[in-house]
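Anyone? Bumping this.
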Amino acid sequence: MAVSGIALVLFLFAHAAGNMKIFVGNEDFDHYAHWLRTLGTPLLPDVWFLWIMRIGLLVAIVAHIYAATQLTIRAKKARPVKYAHRPKVQGSYAARTMRWGGVIVLLFIIYHILDLTTGHLNPVGDSTRPHANVIADFAPDRWYVTLFYVVSVIAVGLHLRHGIWSAVRTLGQQSKQNEFRAQVTSLVLAVVLVAMYLSVPLAVTFGWVK
Amino acid sequence: MNIKVRVWRQSGPQDKGRMVTYDVKDISPDASFLEMIDVLNETLILSGEDPIAFDHDCREGICGMCSMVVNGVAHGPEKATTVCQLHMRKFNDGDTIDVEPWRAAAFPVIKDLVVDRSAFDKIIQAGGYISAPTGTAPDAHATPVPKRDADAAFEAATCIACGACVAACPNGSSMLYTAAKITHLGLLPQGQPERDTRVVDMLQAQDDAGFGGCTNMGECAEVCPKGIPLSLIGRLNSDYRKALTRH
């Protein structure tokens, strides 16, 4: 859970950093996207690097979901009779929504790939012009797509707010002083990622990026 | 005080069980929660009914026998307090209070509010001990222990094995309990010989007993009557990782 999660968080940062290119310029964004395809050449043939990353991500996601499913099954088995009176869990909202939040994030990832990777759900859907895809995707009259992205990205943020801290604890964080530091760091990283991911769809919808 | 209590009644392990409502009248606000049930039981006995079975022993918060989920919270609403040390003044006149047993597959209900906690004994048997030479007891100061370690080990050793952590955990995990034992023994020089095997074996015993897996939700530490900190779970994880890499 922790190791696959950390791998995915590292990817999220790389992905978010790449997205920021759209604020530099249209050509820069397209250039960056094409560069991803030729990354690693001539050592690797074209697009190989991209596929290695994709396979790595898939392995991490499958491992993450497998571990989460195991934990969920064990939790259900561990408490066959429910409490008649059970107030809301006293811990954080983020911790309590990890499972269903995770499912929402997965559905979002599937939509997102069909939208901006394969282009099936994108109004332009031209993989040679990623910038045009993004602009068309979050056009003001497609506000519902932007809204869906906003909700999903916030779900990712909540997932990370508990997830990053929990991963650190699973890997052995144990001092009380660092517990606070780890929780604050987890919150800050989650907020930064959410801000970076929200900036692109919102900027396009409100016309700050054309 | 006049209150209503809705109590889990289950005549035996095979019975399905149900919540039953009782009126409890003229209870002193200074009565403990268990004394309130004692009073209720006396009226039940007088009317020819079966009294409510519940675990209790010292009634001063150190034995770990009392085990009730009061209004959905293990040991009731007062923090760092066992249910035997909880007083009726913490409730209001006219309240309806729900009382349930610990709910976990590893803690099957024997009767009413009494659960079988021998799964905890199995975890202890798997590694909650040290090797000590037999013969006369060594002098207490023969093995120096740093003050910080002694304090931290003592903090973990205050765990009374009541099982509230399991009762509160949304995953039904006993991680805080096992972590307290690992910390208590692993911080002291006497606990070093079995340090690696202890963490591996106790975690295995915990899984075998049917407890759930820990997801660091932190509910356990919220209800722990002894205030065992959540950070001990990190220590357990760290010990486990080191044990796996060394063997």
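Late reply, but here is one note on the structure posted above: Chain A has a mean pLDDT of 94.
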